[in-house]
Amino acid sequence: MDRPDQPDRRRLSPGVDPTPEPGPPPEVAAPLRDDPVVAGLLGACTFPAPGAAVACGVSGGADSLSLLVLAAAAGLAVTAVHVDHGLRAGSAAEAEVVRAAAERFGAGFRAERVAVAPGPNLEARARTARHAALPPGALLGHTADDRAETLLLNLLRGAGPTGLAALGPSPRRPILALRRRDTEGLCRHLGLVPVDDPSNRDPAFRRNRVRHELLPLLAAIAERDPVPLLVRQGDLFADLDRDLDGLAGALDPASAAALRDAPTSVARAALRRWFREAGVNGGYAPTAAAIERVLAVARHEVRATEVDGGWRITRRGGRLTLHPPDPPA
Question: What is the residue range of 71's domain?
Protein backbone atom coordinates (compact mmCIF):
# COMPACT_ATOMS: atom_id res chain seq x y z
CA MET A 1 0.00 0.00 0.00
CA ASP A 2 1.28 3.47 -0.82
CA ARG A 3 2.08 5.57 2.25
CA PRO A 4 -0.53 8.35 2.22
CA ASP A 5 0.18 11.91 3.29
CA GLN A 6 -0.64 12.75 6.91
CA PRO A 7 -1.80 16.39 6.90
CA ASP A 8 -2.26 18.51 10.00
CA ARG A 9 -5.67 18.82 11.58
CA ARG A 10 -6.84 21.97 9.82
CA ARG A 11 -8.86 22.02 6.63
CA LEU A 12 -6.31 21.65 3.86
CA SER A 13 -6.37 22.39 0.18
CA PRO A 14 -5.38 19.64 -2.27
CA GLY A 15 -1.64 19.49 -2.75
CA VAL A 16 -0.66 20.48 0.80
CA ASP A 17 1.86 17.95 2.08
CA PRO A 18 2.77 18.49 5.74
CA THR A 19 5.00 16.13 7.72
CA PRO A 20 3.21 12.96 8.88
CA GLU A 21 2.51 12.42 12.55
CA PRO A 22 3.33 9.02 14.08
CA GLY A 23 -0.29 8.19 14.91
CA PRO A 24 -3.00 8.97 17.47
CA PRO A 25 -1.60 10.27 20.77
CA PRO A 26 -1.61 7.63 23.55
CA GLU A 27 -4.24 9.62 25.46
CA VAL A 28 -6.58 9.08 22.47
CA ALA A 29 -5.80 5.56 21.28
CA ALA A 30 -5.48 3.82 24.65
CA PRO A 31 -8.88 4.89 26.10
CA LEU A 32 -10.52 3.96 22.80
CA ARG A 33 -9.04 0.45 22.96
CA ASP A 34 -10.14 0.15 26.60
CA ASP A 35 -13.73 1.06 25.75
CA PRO A 36 -15.62 -2.28 25.72
CA VAL A 37 -17.86 -1.25 22.81
CA VAL A 38 -14.90 -0.16 20.70
CA ALA A 39 -12.86 -3.21 21.68
CA GLY A 40 -15.70 -5.56 20.80
CA LEU A 41 -16.05 -4.12 17.30
CA LEU A 42 -12.30 -3.82 16.78
CA GLY A 43 -11.94 -7.57 17.29
CA ALA A 44 -14.01 -8.17 14.13
CA CYS A 45 -11.94 -5.78 11.99
CA THR A 46 -8.90 -6.42 9.81
CA PHE A 47 -6.75 -3.31 10.15
CA PRO A 48 -3.02 -3.23 9.39
CA ALA A 49 -0.49 -3.48 12.20
CA PRO A 50 -0.33 -0.56 14.69
CA GLY A 51 1.76 2.34 13.47
CA ALA A 52 0.92 1.90 9.77
CA ALA A 53 -0.03 5.09 7.96
CA VAL A 54 -3.43 4.88 6.28
CA ALA A 55 -5.90 7.16 4.58
CA CYS A 56 -9.59 6.62 5.31
CA GLY A 57 -12.38 7.81 3.05
CA VAL A 58 -14.75 9.54 5.48
CA SER A 59 -18.02 10.95 4.16
CA GLY A 60 -19.36 11.74 7.62
CA GLY A 61 -21.90 8.90 7.69
CA ALA A 62 -21.98 6.37 10.51
CA ASP A 63 -20.00 3.73 8.62
CA SER A 64 -17.10 5.99 7.68
CA LEU A 65 -16.99 7.75 11.06
CA SER A 66 -16.76 4.32 12.68
CA LEU A 67 -13.95 3.43 10.27
CA LEU A 68 -12.07 6.53 11.45
CA VAL A 69 -12.66 5.75 15.14
CA LEU A 70 -11.67 2.09 14.86
CA ALA A 71 -8.58 2.87 12.77
CA ALA A 72 -7.45 5.29 15.49
CA ALA A 73 -8.20 2.70 18.17
CA ALA A 74 -6.07 0.21 16.21
CA GLY A 75 -3.10 2.55 16.65
CA LEU A 76 -2.79 3.59 13.00
CA ALA A 77 -1.53 6.93 11.72
CA VAL A 78 -4.81 8.02 10.13
CA THR A 79 -5.62 10.71 7.60
CA ALA A 80 -9.37 11.24 7.14
CA VAL A 81 -10.09 12.30 3.56
CA HIS A 82 -13.48 13.86 2.86
CA VAL A 83 -14.67 14.21 -0.74
CA ASP A 84 -17.40 16.75 -1.49
CA HIS A 85 -19.33 16.14 -4.71
CA GLY A 86 -21.11 19.48 -4.47
CA LEU A 87 -24.39 17.83 -5.45
CA ARG A 88 -26.56 19.43 -2.77
CA ALA A 89 -26.74 22.64 -0.78
CA GLY A 90 -24.71 22.58 2.41
CA SER A 91 -22.58 19.61 1.41
CA ALA A 92 -19.38 21.57 2.05
CA ALA A 93 -20.32 21.86 5.75
CA GLU A 94 -20.17 18.07 6.05
CA ALA A 95 -16.40 18.31 5.79
CA GLU A 96 -16.42 20.13 9.12
CA VAL A 97 -18.11 17.14 10.76
CA VAL A 98 -15.27 14.96 9.53
CA ARG A 99 -12.62 17.52 10.49
CA ALA A 100 -13.98 17.69 14.05
CA ALA A 101 -14.05 13.90 14.37
CA ALA A 102 -10.52 13.63 13.00
CA GLU A 103 -9.27 16.18 15.52
CA ARG A 104 -11.06 14.44 18.39
CA PHE A 105 -9.50 11.07 17.57
CA GLY A 106 -5.99 12.25 16.74
CA ALA A 107 -6.20 11.86 12.96
CA GLY A 108 -5.07 14.12 10.16
CA PHE A 109 -7.60 15.62 7.79
CA ARG A 110 -7.81 16.58 4.14
CA ALA A 111 -10.75 17.86 2.11
CA GLU A 112 -11.18 17.25 -1.60
CA ARG A 113 -13.84 18.57 -3.96
CA VAL A 114 -14.92 16.95 -7.22
CA ALA A 115 -17.42 17.99 -9.87
CA VAL A 116 -20.16 15.54 -10.81
CA ALA A 117 -22.70 16.81 -13.33
CA PRO A 118 -26.37 15.88 -12.84
CA GLY A 119 -27.67 13.25 -15.25
CA PRO A 120 -28.00 9.49 -15.74
CA ASN A 121 -26.09 7.04 -13.54
CA LEU A 122 -25.45 9.80 -11.01
CA GLU A 123 -24.81 7.40 -8.12
CA ALA A 124 -22.24 5.36 -10.05
CA ARG A 125 -20.51 8.44 -11.46
CA ALA A 126 -20.32 10.06 -8.03
CA ARG A 127 -18.83 6.89 -6.56
CA THR A 128 -16.24 6.72 -9.34
CA ALA A 129 -15.30 10.38 -8.83
CA ARG A 130 -15.03 9.88 -5.06
CA HIS A 131 -12.75 6.88 -5.37
CA ALA A 132 -10.57 8.69 -7.92
CA ALA A 133 -10.11 11.56 -5.45
CA LEU A 134 -9.00 9.27 -2.62
CA PRO A 135 -5.33 8.30 -2.21
CA PRO A 136 -4.34 4.90 -3.64
CA GLY A 137 -5.16 2.14 -1.17
CA ALA A 138 -7.43 4.33 0.98
CA LEU A 139 -9.53 2.37 3.46
CA LEU A 140 -13.30 2.32 2.91
CA GLY A 141 -16.14 1.95 5.39
CA HIS A 142 -18.09 -0.85 3.69
CA THR A 143 -20.07 -3.16 5.97
CA ALA A 144 -21.76 -6.55 5.60
CA ASP A 145 -24.99 -4.72 4.74
CA ASP A 146 -23.26 -2.97 1.83
CA ARG A 147 -22.00 -6.33 0.62
CA ALA A 148 -25.47 -7.89 0.72
CA GLU A 149 -26.95 -4.93 -1.15
CA THR A 150 -24.24 -5.13 -3.81
CA LEU A 151 -24.83 -8.84 -4.35
CA LEU A 152 -28.55 -8.24 -4.89
CA LEU A 153 -27.92 -5.29 -7.20
CA ASN A 154 -25.50 -7.32 -9.31
CA LEU A 155 -27.92 -10.23 -9.38
CA LEU A 156 -30.59 -7.91 -10.76
CA ARG A 157 -28.12 -6.82 -13.44
CA GLY A 158 -27.59 -10.44 -14.48
CA ALA A 159 -24.06 -10.77 -13.13
CA GLY A 160 -22.21 -14.08 -12.97
CA PRO A 161 -19.93 -15.36 -10.18
CA THR A 162 -17.52 -12.43 -10.46
CA GLY A 163 -20.23 -9.84 -9.95
CA LEU A 164 -21.92 -11.84 -7.19
CA ALA A 165 -18.59 -12.08 -5.35
CA ALA A 166 -18.07 -8.30 -5.54
CA LEU A 167 -17.27 -6.25 -2.45
CA GLY A 168 -15.67 -9.24 -0.75
CA PRO A 169 -12.95 -9.20 1.92
CA SER A 170 -10.07 -6.87 1.06
CA PRO A 171 -7.33 -4.98 2.92
CA ARG A 172 -9.19 -1.83 1.86
CA ARG A 173 -12.39 -2.92 3.64
CA PRO A 174 -11.34 -3.57 7.26
CA ILE A 175 -14.83 -3.23 8.82
CA LEU A 176 -16.63 -5.48 6.30
CA ALA A 177 -17.65 -7.96 9.02
CA LEU A 178 -19.56 -5.26 10.93
CA ARG A 179 -23.23 -4.46 10.43
CA ARG A 180 -24.69 -1.04 9.83
CA ARG A 181 -26.39 -1.25 13.22
CA ASP A 182 -22.91 -1.69 14.76
CA THR A 183 -21.59 1.52 13.23
CA GLU A 184 -24.73 3.47 14.13
CA GLY A 185 -24.51 2.13 17.69
CA LEU A 186 -20.84 3.08 17.97
CA CYS A 187 -21.61 6.65 16.89
CA ARG A 188 -24.38 6.92 19.50
CA HIS A 189 -22.07 5.46 22.14
CA LEU A 190 -19.38 8.05 21.42
CA GLY A 191 -21.77 10.97 20.96
CA LEU A 192 -20.97 11.37 17.27
CA VAL A 193 -23.73 12.79 15.09
CA PRO A 194 -23.32 11.38 11.56
CA VAL A 195 -24.11 13.42 8.49
CA ASP A 196 -27.70 12.92 7.34
CA ASP A 197 -27.48 12.44 3.57
CA PRO A 198 -31.04 12.65 2.17
CA SER A 199 -29.91 10.94 -1.03
CA ASN A 200 -29.65 7.72 1.02
CA ARG A 201 -33.46 7.71 1.18
CA ASP A 202 -34.16 8.74 -2.41
CA PRO A 203 -36.00 5.88 -4.18
CA ALA A 204 -34.63 7.14 -7.49
CA PHE A 205 -31.45 5.24 -6.57
CA ARG A 206 -31.84 1.49 -6.93
CA ARG A 207 -29.55 0.73 -3.98
CA ASN A 208 -31.93 2.62 -1.70
CA ARG A 209 -34.86 0.51 -2.86
CA VAL A 210 -32.84 -2.65 -2.24
CA ARG A 211 -31.90 -1.34 1.23
CA HIS A 212 -35.28 -0.03 2.35
CA GLU A 213 -37.70 -2.25 0.42
CA LEU A 214 -36.16 -5.47 -0.89
CA LEU A 215 -34.07 -6.51 2.12
CA PRO A 216 -36.92 -5.95 4.62
CA LEU A 217 -39.23 -7.92 2.32
CA LEU A 218 -36.73 -10.78 2.13
CA ALA A 219 -36.44 -10.73 5.91
CA ALA A 220 -40.23 -10.95 6.25
CA ILE A 221 -40.49 -13.81 3.74
CA ALA A 222 -37.54 -15.78 5.14
CA GLU A 223 -38.42 -14.91 8.76
CA ARG A 224 -34.74 -14.29 9.39
CA ASP A 225 -32.04 -11.72 8.68
CA PRO A 226 -31.00 -12.27 5.05
CA VAL A 227 -27.70 -10.36 5.24
CA PRO A 228 -25.59 -13.21 6.74
CA LEU A 229 -27.05 -15.58 4.13
CA LEU A 230 -26.17 -13.22 1.29
CA VAL A 231 -22.66 -12.66 2.66
CA ARG A 232 -22.14 -16.44 2.80
CA GLN A 233 -23.38 -16.74 -0.79
CA GLY A 234 -20.91 -14.05 -1.78
CA ASP A 235 -18.10 -16.09 -0.22
CA LEU A 236 -19.22 -19.18 -2.13
CA PHE A 237 -19.33 -17.27 -5.40
CA ALA A 238 -15.85 -15.91 -4.67
CA ASP A 239 -14.52 -19.46 -4.25
CA LEU A 240 -16.19 -20.50 -7.50
CA ASP A 241 -14.84 -17.46 -9.31
CA ARG A 242 -11.27 -18.15 -8.12
CA ASP A 243 -11.50 -21.78 -9.21
CA LEU A 244 -12.89 -20.87 -12.63
CA ASP A 245 -10.27 -18.17 -13.11
CA GLY A 246 -7.51 -20.64 -12.24
CA LEU A 247 -8.77 -23.17 -14.80
CA ALA A 248 -9.29 -20.42 -17.36
CA GLY A 249 -5.69 -19.26 -16.92
CA ALA A 250 -4.46 -22.64 -18.18
CA LEU A 251 -6.57 -22.45 -21.35
CA ASP A 252 -5.47 -20.70 -24.55
CA PRO A 253 -8.47 -18.48 -25.40
CA ALA A 254 -7.16 -17.89 -28.93
CA SER A 255 -7.41 -21.60 -29.71
CA ALA A 256 -10.80 -22.50 -31.20
CA ALA A 257 -10.20 -26.19 -30.40
CA ALA A 258 -9.31 -25.46 -26.77
CA LEU A 259 -12.48 -23.40 -26.33
CA ARG A 260 -14.61 -26.12 -27.95
CA ASP A 261 -13.13 -28.91 -25.84
CA ALA A 262 -13.22 -27.12 -22.49
CA PRO A 263 -16.25 -27.14 -20.19
CA THR A 264 -18.43 -24.24 -21.27
CA SER A 265 -18.09 -22.43 -17.94
CA VAL A 266 -14.28 -22.56 -18.18
CA ALA A 267 -14.33 -21.42 -21.83
CA ARG A 268 -16.50 -18.46 -20.88
CA ALA A 269 -14.18 -17.57 -18.01
CA ALA A 270 -11.14 -17.79 -20.32
CA LEU A 271 -12.77 -15.40 -22.79
CA ARG A 272 -13.73 -12.94 -20.05
CA ARG A 273 -10.14 -13.03 -18.78
CA TRP A 274 -8.77 -12.52 -22.31
CA PHE A 275 -11.07 -9.57 -22.95
CA ARG A 276 -10.23 -8.00 -19.61
CA GLU A 277 -6.46 -8.28 -20.15
CA ALA A 278 -6.77 -6.92 -23.70
CA GLY A 279 -8.78 -3.93 -22.46
CA VAL A 280 -11.86 -4.76 -24.52
CA ASN A 281 -14.54 -2.12 -23.91
CA GLY A 282 -12.33 -0.33 -21.40
CA GLY A 283 -11.85 -3.44 -19.27
CA TYR A 284 -15.54 -3.72 -18.37
CA ALA A 285 -16.98 -7.20 -18.12
CA PRO A 286 -18.22 -8.42 -21.52
CA THR A 287 -21.89 -9.15 -21.97
CA ALA A 288 -23.07 -12.75 -21.87
CA ALA A 289 -24.34 -12.36 -25.43
CA ALA A 290 -20.88 -11.29 -26.65
CA ILE A 291 -19.26 -14.33 -25.02
CA GLU A 292 -21.77 -16.65 -26.67
CA ARG A 293 -21.08 -15.09 -30.07
CA VAL A 294 -17.35 -15.73 -29.65
CA LEU A 295 -18.03 -19.34 -28.70
CA ALA A 296 -20.02 -19.64 -31.93
CA VAL A 297 -16.90 -18.51 -33.79
CA ALA A 298 -14.85 -21.16 -31.96
CA ARG A 299 -17.42 -23.82 -32.88
CA HIS A 300 -17.10 -22.86 -36.60
CA GLU A 301 -20.70 -21.71 -36.70
CA VAL A 302 -19.62 -18.27 -37.91
CA ARG A 303 -16.26 -16.90 -39.04
CA ALA A 304 -16.29 -13.60 -37.15
CA THR A 305 -18.37 -11.50 -34.80
CA GLU A 306 -18.47 -8.14 -33.11
CA VAL A 307 -18.10 -7.94 -29.37
CA ASP A 308 -18.32 -5.05 -26.91
CA GLY A 309 -17.08 -1.55 -27.63
CA GLY A 310 -16.61 -2.06 -31.35
CA TRP A 311 -14.02 -4.86 -30.98
CA ARG A 312 -14.17 -7.84 -33.35
CA ILE A 313 -13.18 -11.51 -33.23
CA THR A 314 -12.10 -13.38 -36.35
CA ARG A 315 -11.03 -16.99 -36.86
CA ARG A 316 -8.31 -18.19 -39.23
CA GLY A 317 -6.50 -21.52 -39.19
CA GLY A 318 -8.13 -22.51 -35.93
CA ARG A 319 -6.93 -19.33 -34.16
CA LEU A 320 -9.05 -16.46 -32.88
CA THR A 321 -7.81 -12.90 -33.16
CA LEU A 322 -9.07 -9.84 -31.26
CA HIS A 323 -9.26 -6.68 -33.35
CA PRO A 324 -9.62 -3.26 -31.65
CA PRO A 325 -12.16 -0.74 -32.94
CA ASP A 326 -11.25 1.29 -36.00
CA PRO A 327 -9.86 4.71 -35.06
CA PRO A 328 -12.29 7.59 -35.50
CA ALA A 329 -12.18 9.24 -38.91
Answer: 26-139+174-199
1 inside domain: no
pLDDT band at 309 (very low <50, low <70, confident <90, very high): confident
Residues contacting residue 121 through CB under 8 Å, at least 6 positions apart: none
What SS3 state is found at 323?
strand
Percent of the chain whose pLDDT exceeds 70: 87
Position 52 in a domain: yes
Rounded-to-integer distance, Cα 248 and Cα 277, Å: 13
pLDDT tens readout for residues 279-306: 998 877 888 999 999 999 999 999 999 9
Give the amino acid at 159.
A
Same domain? For 116 and 255 the reply is no
- Rounded Cα gap, residues 72 and 103, in angstroms: 11
| Same structural domain, 72 and 148 | no
3-class SS of residue 57: strand
Q: Which of 36, 87, 78 is nearest to 57 (CA)?
A: 78
DSSP assignment of 160-216: -HHHHT-S-S-TT-TTTTS-HHHHHHHHHHHT------GGGG-TTSHHHHIIIIIHH
Burial annotation 158-167 (CB, 10 A radius, 16+ → b, else e): ebbbbbbbbb
Task: Tell me the backbone φ, ψ of residue 238, rounded to 5 degrees.
Answer: -65, -40
pLDDT at 228 over 90: yes
216 CB-near residues (< 8 Å, 6+ apart):
none
Residue 165 lies in a domain: yes
Rounded to whole angstroms, the Cα distance separating 226 from 241 reads 22
pLDDT for 300: 96
CB 75 within 8 A of CB 69: no
User: Which among 166, 189, 191 has a CA at the least distance from the CA of 176?
Assistant: 166
CB 292, CB 298: distance < 8 Å: no
Question: Which amino acid is it at 249?
Answer: G
